Structures are given as structure tokens and as C-alpha cells.
Amino acid sequence: MAVRNIRKDNDEVLRKVAKKVEVIDDRILTLLDDMADTMYQAEGVGLAAPQVGILRRVVVIDVGEGLLELINPVIVYENGEQIDEEGCLSIPGTRGEVKRPNKVIVRAQNRAGETVEITGTELLARAFCHEVDHLNGVLFTDKVIKTTDPDPRNTASS
Ligand code: ZN
Prior knowledge:
This protein has a single domain, classed as Peptide Deformylase. It contains two helices and eight strands, in the order H-E-E-E-E-E-E-E-H-E. The protein has helices spanning 26-41, 123-135; strands at residues 46-48, 58-61, 68-79, 82-87, 95-100, 103-109, 115-121, 144-148. The strands form two sheets. The chain has a five-stranded antiparallel beta sheet with strand order 1-2-3-6-7. Strands 4-5-8 form a three-stranded antiparallel beta sheet. Strand 6 (103-109) and strand 7 form a beta hairpin. The mean pLDDT is 95.
């Protein structure tokens, strides 16, 4: 396991569409391990593979409820809306309010290749949306309603 370098700001890899994972091999399992290490070291709540330079549809999330590993995640349901502050490990120093659905169901494969569906509300729903956007080359700054000053009490970034 290892901490990988987080790609930042204008790195063009952040704007590319990640490819579906066809085979969950050792490289993907190592990627999941390294992404979790990298996310925790950066004190983030989520990380998508393009943020470490790998154009595969792989995401890790931990909003304080345990580690979620998502391979080929797809949002299959969304409902309601929430507006809250968001940040990104790839865009340090920038935060802003983004409108997201308040409830999201994501379908993905886990590391065993099993299909799972996970329901998230509030911060977890926001993280699902933020990370799936990363897989499509979309950054939260594309969706910001209002830029906010960095608030030391709210440091969740993904
Ligand atoms: Zn991000």
C-alpha cells in the first residue's frame, strides 16, 4: 500500500473520461488500497482514480461511516436537493456551494466483483455525485453556485 500523488488544478487528466473496469485484477486491487491510503493521508472524504492519474472508473469514499470501494459506480436514483459547501483535494484552497440531490442510490461492483447498491443521503449523496463527476472529467467548480471562503470548521474535500 502506498500514498499516490494527487493531481491538481489544471492537470489535464482531471478532464478526461475514465474507462470502465472490465477485469478486477491485482492492479485494480492495489489501486483501491493506494487510493484509500491517499484519501486518508489527505484527510479527504472521497477520491476518484483520475485524481491519482489513473483513468479507470474506481472510487473510494469515507464520510466517517467506513470505507466504501466502488468499481464502475453508476447513480441509479436521485431525489430531493441540498445546497452545501464542497471542496476537492484536486483544487486546494477553493470551496463553493453546489446543489446536489439529497438522496442518491449508487450501483457499483465491490472488490469481489459483486454488484452492490448503496443509498446515501446528505454528505454521502454529495460524495457519490462528486466522485462520479470526476470519472466523467467534471469538477465541482463547474457547478459552483457561490464561491465561499475556506472555513476551517468544514474541511471535507473529495
Ligand atoms: Zn474532487
